[in-house]
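EI: anyone free to look at a 178-residue chain?
SC: sure, send it
EI:
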Amino acid sequence: MSPASRLIIRQANNADLESLVAFSTAMAKETEGRILDQARLREGTQSLLGSPAYGFFMVAEAPGTDPPQLVGQLMITFEWSDWRNGVFWWIQSVYVDPAWRRRGVFRRMHDAIVSQAKTDPKVCGIRLYVEQDNRTAKTVYQRVGLAQSVYNVYESDFVLAKQAISKKHSRTRKKEGL
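SC: here you go
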């Protein structure tokens, strides 16, 4: 039995707050070179945990640990589709602890989300976005059956656009002509 097959995949709760914040912090730094405002991130995470109409977090928990050790997370938010008269579940804030990567953690969380979504007749599909240069993540998403959409995402970010990204990430993006 693989370690991932023994994981407990469950909806996050308030007791998971610090792990969720730590994972989101690490994910932003790793994928975009961003240093997130910890107070804002903690408040945003608490807001989602307390507002099921906005979405929810799913976590992967290693069995038999006390206190529980979380090894992965993803966040689900909702988008109404008038074309489909249903809701897309958007997968966001995906993070797997580096020690648990390439062991099926995301696949287990994804499978749980797909199973849960298919039981709700109002859910019409699952979507996610990925940082354009994150080849590793793109490969993982394709392996679980997600396909690249015909859409590109555009945004006006009123919060993070004002923050400077780390110098290392900035130099890398300049070198790549971005």
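EI: Strands lie at 8-11, 55-62, 69-81, 86-96, 123-128.
SC: 👍
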